[in-house]
């Protein structure tokens, strides 16, 4: 591990794929549940932490997603949303994140009478409170909202319109999430058309619980500028060992397209293991196609997906990859520069992020 885990935490980092409802503090869940009378599987924060980890270690994305019933249940009020959002920013900053894109699905937070605009505004208030508090402590962080539409529902156009309405009030992009297999991006083609006509960028969960057709649909129906996970793009890469000394790698048309256009892959190593996204290659970190994609020149980025469910941080994910593949600080910097280049920000601001990353790594 380059410099030890503590130094990785101190390095400036960028988080592109981090779910708001997957990053709650267990103690906060306990307290919010008590306020609204919601019955938790465990009422002690430590035991609840263990429950999330065990439930998430299922090898199935569908089972993994069931843990969100608990977190979403305590995020149905203005105060609950504000608290969760504010603490989310604090936790990112404590992990050395200087820029974070925070995704969540507003349509899942209407059970107590709030409407779509109200829940987005509540989250934005919480994010701004968190940013102000972090900055007052002498640290630097910036965040933006990615609004996700659940792919199994029919609200894609509603959420696209919502994102456009709030684009100058904290929302920087659009996403679709939820069960991937059987719910291709093509089902929301109208929403993606609307976003494109309004110059709103989109990232799409694809290549996690489904394969190459899902990725194709994300790119060509969803006009995705990034792929949420995208790990199964490795299915379009052929490796042939002709003898002990010569290995030949061939990219399929889809993989070549993604590489040539530098479409970022929002890889989440621990989550990919938990959900079975990489089961065809193995069940340990060393089996993850991350290094293959990196060595072949794809724009790989490192992400947490859901910090609570995976019991992880961005620093931990970097440390796990370093341990598995022998990366050094130069490699870790590349991952952050890749993320800066893929951020849903104007190019001048992306360049500023890249410079901040370079300066921080030079000081390490």
UniProtKB/TrEMBL annotation:
Q: One Pfam family of this protein, by short name? A: A_deaminase
Gene Ontology molecular function: adenosine deaminase activity; metal ion binding
Q: From which domain of life does this come?
A: Bacteria
Looking up NCBIfam families in the UniProt record yields: PRK09358.1-2 (NF006847)
Write the record's keywords in alphabetical order, separated by commas: Hydrolase, Metal-binding, Zinc
Per the record, the similarity remark reads: Belongs to the metallo-dependent hydrolases superfamily. Adenosine and AMP deaminases family.
Question: PANTHER family, per this entry?
Answer: ADENOSINE DEAMINASE
Q: Indicate the enzyme's highest-level EC class.
A: hydrolase
Instruction: Tell me the classification of the organism that encodes this protein.
Output: Bacteria, Bacillati, Actinomycetota, Actinomycetes, Micrococcales
InterPro entries attached to this UniProt entry: A_deaminase_dom, Ado/ade_deaminase, Metal_Hydrolase
Task: Give the organism the record lists.
Answer: Salinibacterium amurskyense
SUPFAM superfamilies the record matches: Metallo-dependent hydrolases
Its needed co-factors are: Zn(2+)
Could you tell me what this protein is called? adenosine deaminase
| Cellular component per GO, a single term | cytosol
Tell me one GO biological process term. Answer: hypoxanthine salvage
Annotated EC:
3.5.4.4
Q: Where is the Adenosine deaminase domain?
A: 12-357
């Amino acid at each position: 591990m380059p410099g030890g885990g503590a130094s990785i935490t101190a390095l400036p980092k960028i988080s592109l794929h981090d779910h708001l409802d997957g990053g709650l503090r267990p103690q906060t869940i306990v307290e919010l549940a008590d306020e609204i009378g919601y019955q938790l599987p465990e009422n002690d924060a430590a035991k609840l932490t263990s429950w999330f980890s065990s439930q998430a270690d299922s090898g199935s994305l569908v089972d993994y997603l069931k843990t969100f019933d608990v977190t979403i249940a305590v995020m149905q009020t203005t105060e609950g949303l504000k608290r969760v959002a504010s603490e989310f920013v604090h936790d990112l900053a404590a992990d050395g994140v200087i820029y974070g894109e925070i995704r969540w699905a507003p349509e899942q937070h209407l059970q107590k009478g709030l409407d779509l605009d109200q829940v987005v505004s509540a989250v934005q208030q919480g994010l701004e409170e968190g940013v102000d508090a972090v900055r007052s402590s002498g640290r630097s962080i910036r965040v933006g909202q990615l609004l996700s539409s659940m792919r199994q529902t029919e609200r894609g156009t509603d959420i696209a319109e919502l994102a456009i309405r709030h684009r100058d009030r904290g929302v920087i992009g659009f996403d679709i999430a939820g069960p991937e297999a059987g719910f291709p991006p093509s089902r929301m083609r109208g929403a993606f058309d609307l976003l494109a006509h309004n110059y709103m960028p989109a990232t799409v969960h694809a290549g996690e619980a489904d394969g190459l057709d899902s990725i194709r649909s994300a790119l060509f129906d969803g006009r995705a500028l990034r792929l949420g996970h995208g790990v199964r793009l490795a299915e379009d890469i052929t490796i042939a060992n002709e003898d002990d000394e010569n290995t030949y790698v061939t990219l399929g048309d889809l993989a070549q397209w993604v590489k040539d256009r530098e479409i970022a892959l929002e890889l989440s190593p621990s989550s990919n293991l938990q959900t079975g996204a990489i089961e065809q290659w193995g069940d340990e970190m060393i089996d993850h196609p991350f290094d293959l994609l990196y060595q072949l020149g794809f724009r790989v980025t490192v992400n947490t997906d859901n910090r609570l469910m995976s019991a992880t941080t961005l620093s931990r994910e970097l440390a796990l990859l370093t341990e598995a593949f022998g990366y050094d600080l130069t490699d870790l910097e590349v991952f952050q520069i890749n993320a800066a280049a893929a951020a849903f920000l104007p190019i001048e601001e992306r360049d500023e992020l890249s410079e901040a990353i370079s300066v921080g790594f030079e000081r390490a």
